[in-house]
């Protein structure tokens, strides 16, 4: 009976381990407003055609240093009002008919997937003639999404290991067969900016919340000292 219960306990852990793939560390820095601004530009130019971010308003980008005029001139392609959300014009039924499934909203994708997953995923597309789009991905096998950033990265092929069987826990190797407009280092930096923006977009108030949390802890620390000495003063005739 004990062995049976232990087996039931470890089944979910085993399932999770089997789905694990190699992930690179994403260069996320929510204090780097310039990076977040660059990432917002990549997002609106390359992602917002198909993916919405309905929980995000363009005006929120003022929190990272952009002015209303800069937002209007550089980022407003799907609407004409800075106060609107980052929605798309594509009807979900049409998207499902064209792509097989409606592209998901990306408002909190960095929180659901995690930044390391996104950073590795966006750099792991490779040519695959067996796929309808001509692309596959080592992080998301048989992915339905085409490589929308291929003009920046170029086209790369997956190098098969000598054993003939790829271990998902080992970092895959790619060969660049057609260069893009960016060098590999520049493309990695661009993806890093995009992931930095997606991480910030998932919780724009995170940095302010953390600052407020530190202030509250400092207040409680000071209050604890005052309360301790007040307690000693009030109870000095009893203890």
From TrEMBL:
Binds 1 heme c group covalently per subunit. Keywords: Heme, Iron, Membrane, Metal-binding, Signal, Transmembrane, Transmembrane helix. It is found in: Membrane. The chain crosses the membrane at residues 212-230. Residues 1-17 form the signal peptide. The gene is petC. It comes from Sulfuriferula nivalis. It comes from the Bacteria. GO terms for molecular function: electron transfer activity; heme binding; metal ion binding. The keyword ATP-binding does not apply. GO terms for cellular component: membrane. The keyword Heme applies. Heme c binds at residues 47, 50-51. This is Cytochrome c. Residues 34-202 form the Cytochrome c domain. Its cofactor is heme c.
């Amino acid at each position: 009976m004990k062995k049976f219960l232990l087996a039931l306990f470890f089944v979910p852990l085993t399932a999770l381990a089997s789905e694990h793939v190699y992930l690179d560390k994403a260069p996320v820095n929510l204090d780097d407003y310039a990076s977040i601004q660059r990432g917002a530009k990549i997002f609106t130019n390359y992602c917002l055609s198909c993916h919405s971010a309905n929980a995000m308003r363009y005006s929120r980008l003022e929190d990272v240093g952009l002015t209303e005029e800069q937002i209007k001139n550089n980022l407003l392609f799907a609407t004409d009002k800075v106060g609107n959300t980052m929605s798309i014009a594509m009807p979900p039924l049409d998207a499902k008919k064209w792509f097989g499934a409606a592209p998901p909203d990306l408002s909190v994708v960095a929180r659901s997937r995690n930044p390391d997953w996104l950073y590795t995923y966006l750099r792991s597309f490779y040519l695959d003639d067996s796929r309808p789009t001509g692309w596959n991905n080592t992080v998301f096998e048989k992915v339905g999404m085409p490589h929308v950033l291929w003009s920046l990265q170029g086209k790369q092929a997956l190098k098969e290991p000598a054993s003939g069987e790829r271990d998902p826990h080992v970092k895959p190797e790619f060969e660049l067969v057609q260069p893009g407009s960016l060098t590999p280092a520049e493309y990695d930096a661009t993806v890093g900016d995009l992931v930095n923006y997606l991480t910030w977009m998932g919780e724009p108030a995170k940095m302010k919340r953390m600052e407020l949390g530190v202030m509250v802890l400092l207040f409680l620390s000071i209050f604890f000292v005052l309360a301790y000495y007040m307690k000693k003063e009030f109870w000095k005739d009893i203890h």
